[in-house]
Design goal:
This protein has about 220 residues and is α/β, with parallel strands linked by helices. The chain folds into two domains: about 1-120, 3-Layer(aba) Sandwich (Rossmann fold); about 125-220, Orthogonal Bundle (Arc Repressor Mutant, subunit A). The chain has helices at about 10-20, 35-40, 60-70, 85-90, 105-120, 150-165, 170-180, 190-200; strands at about 1-5, 25-30, 45-50, 75-80, 95-100, 125-130, 130-135, 140-145, 145-150, 210-215, 215-220. It has a five-stranded parallel beta sheet, with helices on both faces. A four-stranded antiparallel beta sheet has the order 6-7-8-9, with helices on one face. Helix 2 (about 35-40) packs parallel to helix 3 and helix 6 packs across helix 8 (about 190-200).
Length: about 220
């Protein structure tokens, strides 16, 4: 899952971004609301974390403009502004959640999971396809009761596939979701990771779940 962190305090921005990356998220970051709108226009994000008080454009203004433009990316305000009126304003502008600084990072992760789960229309953080199970909270993957060890990027690709089960995902959409703007790699990196996943997820089973749609991309589905 790809997250945008918008926080003008650079040390805190860096800490949040590093902790999110360590938790398995793909992270981009910027320092004001105007730049955030540019990032959001250039990529698909699963969630965005906004401070409120920032230079150039504050978080409230940026989120209002997002919603006016029809961008429904889930938003969490992470701010020191703790007045009830501030929380009401933020939520009324279209934010999905509001967390006061200082905060516990475990709570931030839990709120991100809840926010993105609701956005995806899922009641839990556990996703299934046939006998394949992915737990986004514990980062465990099993198939047929057998534990499957995945690297961080393998897990991210599989999570994107299973969250969009039944939908054909292009190389570009997978790359945009799993790799951030700092990534500099080859054009076939998605093909390589899909190949890795096939060996780990499908190779030992007669029924294959990862399918190539020629000229379009890949789809995770259980064949009838």
């Amino acid at each position: 899952m790809r997250i945008l962190v918008v926080e003008d305090e650079r040390d805190l921005n860096r800490i949040i971004s590093k902790r999110l990356a360590a938790a398995g998220y793909t992270v981009d970051s910027c320092y004001n609301g105007a730049d955030a709108l540019d990032y959001l226009a250039g990529a698909d994000y699963d969630a965005a974390i906004f401070d409120v008080m920032m230079p150039v454009m504050d978080g409230f203004t940026a989120v209002r403009r997002m919603r006016e433009a029809g961008d429904m990316t889930p938003v969490l305000f992470l701010t020191a502004r703790d007045a009830v009126s501030d929380r009401v304003e933020g939520l009324d502008l279209g934010a999905n959640d509001y967390l006061i600084k200082p905060f516990a990072f475990d709570e931030l992760l839990a709120r991100i999971r809840a926010m993105t789960r609701k956005s995806a229309g899922s009641a839990t953080n556990v996703f299934t396809c046939g006998d394949l199970t992915l737990n986004a909270s514990t980062r465990q993957v099993e198939r047929g009761g057998k534990n499957i060890e995945l690297s961080a990027k393998e897990f991210a690709v599989l999570e994107y596939l299973i969250r969009n089960k039944g939908a054909v995902l292009s190389r570009e959409s997978i790359e945009n979701n799993v790799w951030n703007y700092d990534w500099e790699g080859g054009t076939n990196v998605v093909d390589v990771y899909v190949s890795y996943l096939r060996r780990k997820v499908d190779a030992d089973f007669d029924k294959k779940l990862i399918h190539t749609v020629r000229g379009a991309g890949w789809v995770l589905r259980e064949e009838q």
